[in-house]
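Pasting as-is:
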Amino acid sequence: MSEQMNEELVKVYETKDIATTSIIKSLLEAEGIEYFLRGEYMQSLLGADFIFAPGVDVGKVEFLVRPEDAETAKEIIFPQEEE
């Protein structure tokens, strides 16, 4: 996704849980959706729930995708049960 970094990306999910981060990465990769993670290395370094300073959420990871992939990514992350 590095060539498209100048594009505006859309946040589709955020989590503090390292296991959830891994699962969602796998789901998006399996569907061929390129993503960018904001905060992944801080989560890995500091743990999932680290308070750096009041109002600063360091352990949070945000999943960002291209606007055209946002709806599909949300459907993968939040599957709707069939009725």
